[in-house]
Amino acid sequence: MTQATLSQLVSGLGGDHLVGFVLVLARIIPLFVVAPLFSSAMVPAQVRGIIAVAIAIGLTGIATHGQQIPSQPLEVGGLMIEGLLVGFGFAFAVGMVLAAVECAGSFADSLAGFSFGSIIDPVNGNQGGVLAELYGLVGVMLFIAIGGDAWTLRGLARTFTLVPLTKGPRLGSLVGGAEQVFGTIFTSALEIVAPVILALLVTDVAFGMVSRVVPQINVFAVGFPLKVGVSLLVVSATLPFLGGWMTSNIETSVGTALHALQIG
Questions:
Q1: 77 with 175: CB under 8 angstroms?
Q2: Which helix (H) or strand (E) element contains residue 127?
């Protein structure tokens, strides 16, 4: 897109279109704060801002079609707040999928002993163990590979049909949907890391039996590196199945978020 074309698009946003653009942008901004990939710290803030403006320009015509855009500052401010709530509710539902993946990695770190050494995640800047960072990076790559960004953008565009710019969401339904999605993080993380938990549990039981039969063996000295090896082996065997799990859960999360967005 050349600078002249961008100037023509911006100059065409006048009057109601400018107000509509601001309202659309208010609903898009939470995507670059909460949603995976879009909120990545590896992408400079200026680049994220340009992408947000570009998406808002593309959706303004669709979102404002058939809508009576208000011109009073108080009404516009109220609609901006409602747009932020809708955007945060939708982005939160999508972000919880990757949060469950990272939580699964944290569980594996605690059981395998990797939690003793923490590193900084370059994607979101959070501190965590080795397996948590591995799960997080693999989750982002799979999110891109399975078209999670396209799912997110299509779902965001769908919100303008369910909750138009001039309408507000039903707060009870929005909070209930966010609570439902948040409640699935722990169970989803257990689903992902269940093979690692089972393998390490069997390993601990085996070492407990060995320590009873041969008490001269230093179980702690032998068991720690073996548990690390078992955990890495099981993680490498189960990571290929993470893509199918993420595909199903992103579809479910987007559907839950759209279902929760009802006009108040």
A1: no
A2: strand 127-128
Q: Which residue intervals of 146-218 are DSSP H helices? A: 148-162, 171-213
**Mean pLDDT of the region 180-197:** 86
Distance from CA of residue 7 to its chain's centroid? Answer: 33
At residue 6 the predicted structure's pLDDT band, cuts being 50, 70 and 90, is very low
* Cβ contact 58:20 at 8 Å: no
Residues 77-135 have pLDDT tens digits of 888 898 898 888 888 888 888 888 988 888 888 887 776 655 555 555 556 677 888 88
Q: Which two tokens stand for residue 163?
A: 């909750």
Contacts of 35 (CB under 8 A, 6+ apart): 91, 94, 95, 152
pLDDT mean across residues, the chain: 80
Q: Which residues contact 174 (CB under 8 A, 6 or more apart)?
A: 85, 86, 89, 260, 261
Q: Return d(Cα 204, Cα 201) in angstroms, integer.
A: 5
Collapse the DSSP code of 66 into the 3-class scheme (helix H, G, I; strand E, B; otherwise coil) and give the result. coil
- Among 110, 132, 137, 103, which residue's Cα sits nearest to residue 122? 137
pLDDT digits (tens, 9 = 90+) for 132-155: 888 888 888 888 888 888 888 888
First to last CA, the chain: 39
Radius of gyration of the chain (CA): 23
> Residue 7 pairs with which residues in a beta bridge?
none
Neighbour count for residue 227 (Cβ, 10 Å): 19
CB-neighbour burial class of residue 23 (10 A; exposed 0-12, middle 13-18, buried 19+): buried
